[in-house]
Amino acid sequence: DIQMTQSPSSLSASVGDRLTITCRASQSINTYLNWYQQKPGKAPKLLIYAASTLQSGVPSRFSGSGSGTDFTLTISSLQPEDFATYYCQQTYFTPRTFGQGTKVEIK
Amino acid sequence: QVQLQESGPGLVKPSETLSLTCTVSGVSISTYYWSWTRQPPGKGLEWIGYIFYSGSTTYNPSLKSRVTISMDTSKNHFSLRLSSVTAADTAVYYCARTSSGWSGEMDVWGQGTTVTVSS
Fold first, then answer.
1. Which residues does A8 contact at the CB level (< 8 Å), separation at least 6?
2. What is the DSSP-derived secondary structure letter of residue A107?
3. Which of B47, B61, B94 sits opposite A98 (nearest CB)?
């Protein structure tokens, strides 16, 4: 299976901070990489697909980049509603594996 | 708008079969792919598999011997069956609409249903 490794696993940040989360694949996955946000007790929500395409309705402070094995999710100015856990998922290989998640907490 | 709703027993005995249904409204399931994903308590997400309207399926190899995903277009729903369950199958189970494009993103999710495996 393709291993997806996110870093950091957790972080504390303040409202207004610029945040970057990294996702690394154990093999090249081109740009077959999606990002999801999950809040406690809720289903995941799609933020970014195909590595860098913003899902409709998602605020423009979210952006994604990368290709091959290294990807990033950036939040340009953290808002109170952004405190959540973020997951990357590759869809190039079966099984479609997720990263272990990055929990973003309030500092 | 498109909505998905999971339903099924919340408690399943070990060695029995878990059966869940995802009812879709707002779009015909005769388009897109349709996926199942699960999340054990306090843990991350695990992709289970998906079905296309043609009936073709793709499963996680770690579950392939025990899982079946099917669909009923007349009822606009699709289903998950997982046999020979153990405590390790205790999780929140989510269904999701999945893009038929190359990126395969899951853009609409159900709220999730909790399944506990216990005698």
1. A21, A102
2. -
3. B47
* Amino acid B69: pLDDT: 98
The first and second tokens of residue A33, run together, are: 């990489």
* CA B102/CA B88 separation, integer angstroms: 31
pLDDT for B24 equals 98
Average pLDDT taken over every residue of chain B: 96
Cβ within 8 Å, pair A50-B109: no
**pLDDT tens digits for range B21-66:** 999 999 999 989 999 999 999 999 999 999 998 899 999 999 999 9
**C-alpha distances in angstroms, A97 versus A86, B19, B61, B73?**
14, 23, 12, 28
**Which of A4, A31, A46 best probes binding to B when mutated, by most B CB atoms within 10 angstroms?**
A46
What tokens were used for A70? 């290294």
